[in-house]
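User: Sequence for Tetratricopeptide repeat protein below. Tokens please.
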Amino acid sequence: MAKLLIIFLLLPFCCFAQSAETYIGVGNTEANIKNYKGAIDDFTKAIQLEPNNARAYFYRGNAYNNLKERDKAFADYSKAIQYDPKSTFAYFYRGNINNETGKFADAINDFTRAIELAPRADMYHYRANAKASLGDHAGAVEDFTKAIALDPKDASLYEYRGVAKSNLKDNEGAIADYDKAVSLDPKNSDLIFYRGNAKGNMGDYKGAIGDYTAALALNPKNAEAIFYRGNAYGNLKNYNAAIADYKTTIRLNPKMPNVYKYLANALGNVGDKKSALEYFAQAIKQDPNNADLYLYDGLVKYNLNDNEGALADFDKSIELKPSSDAYQNRADIKLSLKNYDEAKDDADEAIKLDSKNAYAYVSRARANLELRDTVAALADLNTGIKMNPANDYSYVLLGNIDAGKHKYDSALAWYDKALSYSPGDSETLLKRAETRLKVNNRAGALADYKRIAAINKDDDNLRDRFVKSIIRAKFYAEALPIFNTLVAADGKNANFFVGRGVAKQHTGDIQGALADYGTALKLDTASSLAYFNRGSARFDQKDYTGALADIAKGIKINDGQEDAYFIRGQIRLAMKNYQGAVDDFNSVTFINLDNTVAYAWRGLARALSGDKQRSDLDFNYALKIEPKNPEIYYLRGQSRVNVKDVTNACTDFKQAIALGSKDAEAAAKQYCK
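Assistant: Structure tokens for Tetratricopeptide repeat protein:
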């Protein structure tokens, strides 16, 4: 913000009489040649002659202020106001001291009084600063607007109003202000830099890069502009350009916050493991006792799924210089390794070293959730959000907690909140899609799946879960064009062929499905998902032996995937091996307690085996968890048909139809006359 210029009002004085006015005049002369101590002596003599002389106190306050003796200056301005309540500049300058010492409410009061007496643009400017410091950005915008009305050619007023608008997330308004400021002061690189920030906040990364580049043409050593340009390149997935900017930033300012972290992420995203590791290996060789280098080398390794190497680096970083960031990142590694107690201990250390590390509270919350301490987890998440309301992952965890309690509406609200801060986060979109399915919002879920596919994040684990999720959701016709696009973009990803195979299988193209499953197995001979779904396709062809053989191959590769047991349970059901089907659906619920539909299928298997009591328990539980799931009503209807309870079966089919079930429509035509 602008510095306040202390002004002295020179008045004529008589050179013959040693009056208070004489000393004031001499004091002003001394002050104007910057002999502030001499000026103070003269103003003090004036006060001794006239203890109620407001002007003497005011000028002495100015001199003290120029000597940075704020307490004395403040006292003198207060005296000036006491003896002259209309001393406009005494209020103004005292307000500036209040501003500088963090007494923003008092500053606002002083600036308001000065404005009431004689409004000026700079008074509104400084009051706006005080309001902004208190978080009243709307009030700041209002004051800057008034200042601009008084001085419309002051570029700084548009600049600071732009900052206030940015804080209100009015980035379009901020850009308009920066445009005006640039037109008034076209060689001010800072203005162009701030405009770039606003464009970046709006997601206009190309526009931001243009502004950062223009700002750097005027000031090539602006390390921040280079750093933020690197961030913009990263958001456009131009990681090589981002890496170049981060390296330049390090040369100009190796202490730039987070620069190594972002460089590590960019190097990891390039996928060039060798270059990423070589860069930090060379840096560590040149500076082997730099704890930060080990920290960010660890992040590179973590992003490349080298948990063991990352853990060793974090250990070394902590050994050299224990830091909150190092403990927090080591906590995250231990969370991924399921060492929850150790993760919690590391998060505790991170918070001890820096109680304002919002991410450490989130890491500890994750550990507490795994340790079944939901109360402590909620307390940590709330603390983290207070410190950093824009940390989207905090809201994701809150959503996960509510989803785990089957409070789907509130879980969705949390996921919406998370996505408002990070709209392109595929993980959160997947969470929201699956939760929308729990409340039968299929249109919303499909929209989320389409966004995930459009983003196509380079993460095999995420892709695997995305394929499984959209398959379970039974978006067969809708998924076919999605997978066609994904296969065209990445013809070497086995899971995309599996997904397309499932879509083809359930839209009547069994041969096309089998071809896609075969291609998937050529690309990845260990694709258990391809075996499971090829088994399902063979089941559709009544080839039970071939179907069970494929399922068995898939289980041999990976016996922890619920899909295998779910599909085999359906096959066994068709083969009237009801107890075998019950056993498989038991396995599904053991692997994933949240697979509510598996309870309904187990209920059907139990009903067909004659175990009505436990069948009813399964259906009641499933409907308690997902009362808007049409498949559960359809399956219960089928179980009731089996015991000749057609009336209640038809009630279930009608409910399933109301919720959108096509299978129930066919059943109703058959049984409900």
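Confidence is low (pLDDT under 50) at residues 1-16.
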